Amino acid sequence: MERLSEATDKNQTRVRSRARLANVTALDAVSIITTKRDGGELSDAQIDWVVDGFTNGTVADEQMAALAMAIVWRGMTRRETARWTAAMIASGSRLDFTDLPRPTVDKHSTGGVGDKITLPLAPLVAACGAAVPQLSGRGLGHTGGTLDKLEAISGWQADVPLPRMREILADPGIGAVVCAAGADLAPADKRLYALRDVTGTVESIPLIASSIMSKKIAEGTAALVLDVKVGAGAFLKTLDGARELATAMVELGTDAGVRTVALLTAMDTPLGRTAGNALEVAESVEVLAGGGPADIIELTVTLAREMVALTGIDLDPADVLADGRAMDQWRAMVRAQGGDPDAPLPTAKHTQVVRAERDGVLTRLDAMGVGLAAWRLGAGRARQGDPVQAGAGIEMHAKPGDSVTAGQPLLTLHTDTPDAFARAEAALDGALAIEESAEKPATPLVLGRVEA
Ligand code: URA
């Protein structure tokens, strides 16, 4: 009896101290939430505690969601955002490539329709003499993911163990890796991004900036060029919003010792003439072979010049693209990850053509409409883990400013699942406009530049 009551007492003490702990935890989380809700500034210790607690499960999802919503409304100062980013980096491991014999530089795009720039850019910059370590993601929603595009190449593997990644980066004949980020890269961001996605808390400049930059800084690159998209097909619609995000990210990179520059680039109409995984690989290979659409060439060379300048290498990437060295590097890079650069790319089982209804000038080809249609054709996924169709997507036979005649093909839709055509056409409703005559729009591709 004696023993039993002693054990019961001990149990009760344990239960009471657990309750006290939970209470303290809840109180701390609540005071952090209310501080931000009321417009206060969080201390470094509060930020470290809440990010760590969220990662290890002591801060509940509903508490973090409430804090994220308070941040959406109240914002964070530069110091808070830098500390938040550092706490997310500290939640996992940070790669270190400082021992490589070549300078490291990477590019990150905030995402756009037909944005296949990484594919020609990474080998081009590697051919200039830099090492490009790019940890990338898969597509979700209307913009495609770089890994999904590269997986259209027969045999290509997105998972590269770290020792192999180092070997590839150190090899001057390869020098670029585009691979999946491991689970240990900023795990706090992985959890937080998933939570923000379902709680209406994505739209916050400090949260977006810290989310993107925590992953890029943890990736271990010494220099970074950001391509911040602006316009109908981007998730920031205004130049002011894009500039604010670019500035926040450049500040975070600079504060963390990563040389960072951002370009603001137009995303009202898709980049190039294809949207969809294998279709975009084929277009990228055209660019590496010396052809391809003018906008893809321009953006690839512009971003490559920024990247090469950050490494201090004295070469013009335009020359390296023109003489075929970037193509050689691409072939080596594909092979290094198990891919066959000569294998035919997959094609979709069914196609359908969208024709011009009348003569005139194509004045609108809306990036969001095209992205949504490509997604509905099977090029993208609705939920993480869903499969994508390698051959699905859209070819664009005319771009804004081009003259068209009635009956001329404007788009070819590609899919393995023909019942998707009707849904894709619905997404394109209103996305195209033909007017009797129009000045060829002289919209520049690069709209601004932000540096520290
Ligand atoms: N991409 C990210 O990685 N994080 C965001 O918060 C938004 C876009």
TrEMBL record:
Residues 361-435 form the Pyrimidine nucleoside phosphorylase C-terminal domain. One of its GO terms (molecular function) is thymidine phosphorylase activity. InterPro entries: Glycosyl_Trfase_fam3, Glycosyl_Trfase_fam3_N_dom, Glycosyl_Trfase_fam3_N_dom_sf, Nuc_phospho_transferase, PYNP-like_C_sf, PYNP_C, Pyrmidine_PPas_bac/euk, Pyrmidine_PPase_CS. Pfam families: Glycos_trans_3N (PF02885), Glycos_transf_3 (PF00591), PYNP_C (PF07831). GO terms for cellular component: cytosol. SMART domains: PYNP_C (SM00941). One of its GO terms (biological process) is pyrimidine nucleobase metabolic process. SUPFAM superfamilies: Nucleoside phosphorylase/phosphoribosyltransferase catalytic domain (SSF52418), Nucleoside phosphorylase/phosphoribosyltransferase N-terminal domain (SSF47648), Pyrimidine nucleoside phosphorylase C-terminal domain (SSF54680). Keywords: Glycosyltransferase, Transferase. Belongs to the thymidine/pyrimidine-nucleoside phosphorylase family. Homodimer. This is Thymidine phosphorylase. It comes from Nocardia tenerifensis.
